[in-house]
Amino acid sequence: MHGIKDAASEFLASTRVAVTGVSRTPKNHGSNNVYKRLRERGYEVFAVNPNADEVEGDPCYQDLKSIPGGVQAVVIGTRPEIAEDTMRECAELGITQVWMHRGPGAGSVSDVATAYGRQHGITVINGGCPLMFPPTADFGHKVMRFVYAGKIPKQV
Fold first, then answer.
1. pLDDT at residue 149 above 90?
2. What are phi and psi of 14, to 5 degrees?
3. Which helix (H) or strand (E) holds 123?
4. Can the peptide bond before residue 135 be classed as cis, meaning omega within 30 degrees of 0?
5. pLDDT by residue (tens digit) across 61-101?
6. Helix (H, G, I), strand (E, B), or coil: what is residue 135?
7. 109, 115 in Cβ contact below 8 A?
8. DSSP code of 145?
9. What is the rounded distance in angstroms from the CA atom of residue 86 to the CA atom of residue 103?
10. 155 strand-pairing partners
11. Where are the beta strands (DSSP E) in 25-67?
């Protein structure tokens, strides 16, 4: 186990990142916000939603295995019960960096998915948001990191 800052830094050092749960009707949807910010910061980012062919003006993939060339890291932004299947797919594909998003609400964190991922050698960040940490952070997310400190794991 290591601290959240180190884990976040390792995760955000990945250049090819998939974001699951990106919505066709974004509004204030957390996955869409993460997707757009990573794209703006120069990441090669891939949207995953089995019910969409396009989101945010970009191609959308049905699952992780459909992404050409694969990815190094995954942000899970779906319901917790879907996170379990996504974690299994990450293990099958050899993806070793997974962040289960949790903002103000219940988020995507699943204890079962977390345990499964860690048992299979995946570094799992089970809470918080990648936008709370450099180089993707903005002022608002830095404040959220402080306000929601109890929902962000200290060790992963």
1. no
2. -70, 140
3. strand 123-126
4. yes
5. 999 999 999 999 999 999 999 999 999 999 999 999 999 99
6. coil
7. no
8. H
9. 19
10. 3
11. 44-48, 54-55, 58-61
Residue type, 71: V
Using an 8 Å Cβ cutoff, are 103 and 127 in contact? Answer: no
Question: Tokens 């450099």 appear where?
Answer: 134
Whether the Cβ atoms of residue 40 and residue 51 lie closer than 8 Å to each other:
no
Q: Quote the Cα angle for 89-94-98, to 5°.
A: 70
Instruction: Tell me which amino acid residue 90 is.
Output: C
The CA-based diameter of the chain, rounded to the nearest angstrom, is: 38
Q: What share of the chain is helix, strand, coil (3-state, %, to 5)?
A: 40, 20, 40
pTM over 0.85: yes
CA dist 145 and 150 (Å) reads 9
Calculated CA dihedral for residues 24, 54, 107, 156, nearest 10 degrees: -170
Q: How confident is the model at residue 104 (pLDDT cuts 50, 70, 90)?
A: low
CA 126 to chain centre: 10
> What secondary structure letter does DSSP report for 155?
B
Kindly tell me if the per-residue pLDDT of 146 is higher than 80.
no
**Whole-angstrom distance between the N-terminal and C-terminal Cα of the chain?**
5
19-69 pLDDT tens trace: 999 988 766 667 899 999 999 999 999 999 999 999 989 999 999 999 999
